[in-house]
Amino acid sequence: MLLASKTDPETWDTSPSWDSFDQGMYLPSHLREEFDFVTKSSPPQVFTEVHGYDRTGYNVAASDVQNHDNVATVGVFSGWTASNMVASPSAVADLTWEIYREHYVAPQEYVAMMTEGSKLKKYGLATQINRNIMGQQGRYGESYGHFGATYGYQSIIQYFPELDFVITIASNIEVEYEPQIKDSICFAYNEVAALLLGRDEMTCSCDCSPDCHCHCSPLGEPATSGQFTSAVPKSDGILV
After folding, report:
1. How far apart are CA 145 and CA 123, in angstroms?
2. Which residues of 109-144 are buried (b: 16+ CB within 10 A; e: fewer)?
3. In terms of residue numbers, what domain contains 181?
């Protein structure tokens, strides 16, 4: 109802329509051409050339080959509104930065509601609050964002407040427990964090049996107080 209230009534036929609501109106102007919002049950091939492969046991019958190409499958985008957003990983990284760091999409006090959950709470407002999925404890283990999944595709966005950068990962396979996503971000985050903090070595492993657990050398404290600032200025902290 809140979203519908922003829809121009002159575009309605006999009742409010999601088709007439421009979700891109809330994006920064430089990103509005980078995103598609799916409001009908159109197949992925309408929006992308990237095929998405379903390798799960719960979507594909056991008697079938579990590698179903969903690019032409109607129903992959089965939900409404922001649950169905299509864009490149770099555009999504930019949007993530605008949400959590620049507060363009929502004011800072709302972002605080999204990210300042209790120690036992996984969710803020529309945000998963993670504290150790990267194999780190304390401030280097905290991140905000969300996993994304639809039939044949899985992804993740994360903002790391202590080191002030974003990682987004997109995958064109759907696998139970998202091991390819969790493995990738485990290694990516810790390698980048070690580089920013001047660590000479970083050893990681990711055990996915079945769910994934990231184990890495502890990052600890920065070697020098100015090392991070000089390596990646806060104003340029986007990383894809």
Report:
1. 10
2. eebeebbebeeeeeebeebbbbeebbbbeeebbbbb
3. 88-236
Angstrom distance (rounded) from CA 132 to CA 212: 12
Q: Both tokens of residue 155?
A: 């992804």
Instruction: Kindly report, residue by residue over 139-180, the tens digit of the pLDDT.
Output: 999 999 998 888 899 999 999 999 999 999 999 999 888 999
Residue in 156, 144, 140, 143 with CA at minimum distance from that of residue 196: 140
21 inside domain? no
20 within a domain of the structure (yes/no): no
Give, in order, the Cα–Cα distances in Å from 233 to each of 141, 165, 208, 229.
Answer: 21, 10, 35, 5
User: Structurally, how many domains does the chain consist of?
Assistant: 1
Q: Which residues contact 44 (CB under 8 A, 6 or more apart)?
A: 50, 51, 52, 70, 71, 72, 73, 76, 77, 86, 152, 153
232: left (phi over 0), alpha (psi -120 to 50) or beta: beta
Q: Which of 54-58, 82-86, 180-184 has the highest mean pLDDT?
A: 180-184
Classify residue 212: in a domain, yes or no: yes
| Contact criterion met (CB below 8 Å) for 233 and 151 | no
Dist CA 216 CA 74 (whole Å): 41
The SS3 call for residue 130 is strand
Does residue 67 surpass a pLDDT of 70?
yes
The answer to whether position 203 is within a domain reads: yes
